[in-house]
Amino acid sequence: MQSTIGVGFLGAGPVTQAIHLPTLARLGHEFTIRHVSDVDPAVAESVATRVGATHSSSLDALLDDPAVEVVAICSPHTFHAEQVIAACRAGKSAVLCEKPLAMSSTEADAIAAVSAETGVPIVVGAMHVFDPGWRAAVAQWGELPATSHSIRSSIVLPPNPRFEDVATEVLGRQPFPTPDRSDVEVLAAMIHAGVMGLAVHDLPLVRSLLPRYDDLRVVSAAVLAPFGYRILAVAGGKSIELHAVMSATWQPNWVLEAYANDVALRTEFTPSYVHAGSAVSTLTTAESARVFGPESFNGYESEWLELAGIVRGQIAPPDPGELVDDLRFTLALADAAAEAVRSTHNTEAAA
Amino acid sequence: MNPTPHARAALATLPLSFPDPTGVVIVDGGCDWPAEVTRALRSGAAGVLVVQPKPADFAELLELDPSTAVIVDSTWASNPVIGAAAQAFQAAAADGSRLECRVILAPGSDFPTALLDQLILVRALLSPVSKVRVQYRSDHGFHAEGMTDTSMTVDLSVVCTTAVPAAATVRLLTSDGSVELLIPTGDTAEPARLTTAGPDGAVQAPTQYETGHRASLRRLRELMASGPADGLADLRQLHADVLVTRGAQRT
């Protein structure tokens, strides 16, 4: 067995280049990147060469590589489920799948089944779940999941290159398409993508504050310009407001808040891509405020370290049922938000 | 907590502006304030301050002689930052698509009054809100969506908690920045925070350590001194916002 854990990347786009490679460069005592696979052979070769890894353009080549113990799935969302399943069936030590885990409930069921059958641990790369500033607050939040009544996620982000370009030198960046906002199906797809691609970062955190979500109801949903969403939902008797805008601003602001009658939690996350330390959480009552963080490491580093602990048998892997439930919650929200956009559009058109 | 004593205390901080404070009638907006204002106007008050009025029916009041100055001392909109904030929000409005107005209040607060206070604030900063639809309401707060006369969508929300002090936050995101305003309750001189962010950085406006009540009394003094053509103008705007508030409660 290798002294460090061998990692293979499926997908070598900006997330791999700007997030995972710099993170693993900080964790060289735990991991070695052994294989990089991408549909674009030139990108695969270039990224692999940076880290002295093998490269390929096929899933099978990576899975057949005995040096790969952990498969990191950083491909487009639609490929996640089949690649997670294939990696589990290949008998790898663990799978790290970028969020979302899959794109449908059927896929989620298939993943749960193969995880149970093979016993291969699966970790979803929802970095905020692992953020030490968040986790420290969770450890001290007492009855907040039961008593909180209002939850709000607000995300304001500059264009990704503002951070990607200082995290690495990105190769093969795809241009951002210009959507046709006159088409309601485009708008519905945009808000669905907004949930699956952006809100998904915090939805496991939101779910951890909900007693249930089978009664989830999206009250309103709107696509915001230039790209973003505002979704108001209700679940488990709590209001959930999700707000996000990606614009040309230089000022990131990523905040999750939860309010009970006598306690409030506010967590401010650092932007993705750059290693700017952990989130800072503040638990406040009328008498006092307790602050957690910042730590010098962020959720990415924590998720990889947890993965190392899982592979080495030192940490119990996440419950696949919980991961699938996170996905079901995210899908339910995305689908309901898309339907709300259609409904609003049709109502306005009829008026 | 009744804010009227705070307003009375603020009157004592303007001894030169109001050498005879007995001419000023300070009306508690939490009771039957239209009747009290009517009595004050008919008894020859020099000026009237209505402190944080609840939604009420006062159409008849607007028919009275408008020569007496009446000022509405509102929970958020009376903060002395409002003039500078209005300039900032209006300058950014053409580039912003959606205004957020979020309020923290103590549990048990009166929601129609909370909504009215938000409408008065948005009017002061940007434009009157002409229609509002309540999207969700519980014992712990509400979410509503409004539309200004300038066709900007406004998200209005109230969350009830004792964990953090009561405050109003207004945010307008633009294509390359934002305008954000945090207003504490006007009962202390804790200043509001107005921050404008653009391509060149972020600027925080100078803080003003003056209570909203005192700022309202200064406005009253200015109106009294000018001999108002319509001393009831504040009340007319309040009436329009009350009608929108009541319409929202019915949806």
Automatic annotation (TrEMBL), chain A:
GO terms for molecular function: nucleotide binding; oxidoreductase activity. InterPro entries: Gfo/Idh/MocA-like_OxRdtase_N, Gfo/Idh/MocA_oxidrdct_glycsds, NAD(P)-bd_dom_sf. Keywords: Oxidoreductase. Residues 6-125 form the Gfo/Idh/MocA-like oxidoreductase N-terminal domain. It comes from the Bacteria. It holds the Pfam family GFO_IDH_MocA. This is Putative dehydrogenase.
TrEMBL record, chain B:
It comes from Kribbella caucasensis. This is Uncharacterized protein. It comes from the Bacteria.
